[in-house]
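Quarterly update from the structural biology core.
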Amino acid sequence: MPDTSSTIWSTCGHDRLTCNERGWLVPTDDYWRLWLARPELALVDESCDAERALHASLVQAPTRTVASGDIDAFEDEDARANLRLFLGFRDAVIAAGSLEAAYAGFFKSGAIQVPPLFLDLMVQAVVCQVLNGETDAWRWRAAEMLFRRQRVSVQEGRVLSGDSEVLDMLNETGGLGEVGRLLVQGGASLRETQVEVLGDDNAERYLLSRAGAGRFNFVLDLTHEVQNELPHGLTLTMNRARSGLKGLAAVLEKWVLHFHGVEVRIQPEARVEDPSWRWHLGLDAQASALLNDLYLGHEVEPERQRRLISLFRLTFDDPLHMRADVRGKPVYLGLAMGADGLLKLKPQNLLLNLPLANPV
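Predicted structure, tokenized:
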């Protein structure tokens, strides 16, 4: 396998961040310059003189204070709005001291004022840090789920997760056709559509493809093998050694350790038979609502139950890191797609909703 230190997603700017004593990411001026070069902030032919002058000054000194009047002088309303959003985000990160502290703070404050794109770029950079030195392609591909919306296809017993932006683009251009039908044809490489199911034959190429262009053209297999009946009428199966679910579980373990400094073990579960089920959380909005309804004993329609992709069992290596009232009990996680087949993970749920004795 190639050295992943040279194959990070360059567009997120991980290589323009430094680490503090905790190993959290601290922006440099070059990191903010990368933001200023993004399409949302870069100059265009129509940019007015005031916008050009302020942009040039920020490139020169990315953390400089900007007077409100300097932005008011912009002729374009979108340019004014975008720059204000960026400056608010920049100042919040600088005040927090790191990307991680700012990210956690955004969600603890309640109403989120930060655009989803900004949050996803933060998560992408943190994932690069969390997986630094990792050579397992399945873990890297699973990590994309933390910051890229997925489109899940379930047909003929296979569960495949592809990047929704890539798949939708191919659909719109006529390059993919019926997404679900093509993706489940024996797991073959879909070279004609520039989409491939990650496997042993292309894992090294996947790792190399992340450099520079930041491609997201590989599909992750989330299929289980042997079906088992779950309580409440849910049916899941045991996962394979190369399962994307195991890759995702490993990434989430590292995510928890990075933010909380606590070691946990997460594994996909085929069955949950726990009469003393005490704590659960969804890894996405759909799973959160579904687990809540099941926990409260509400009836859940079979169609909605079938949207549950996987359950996971999370245990703490040291139970003393848990709240006293649930100490030693497992935490159950859920992963589910919407009725439209879309899946957007919420990694912040593992920051806010774990039963920690000493939350970050």
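The first helix runs from residue 29 to 36.
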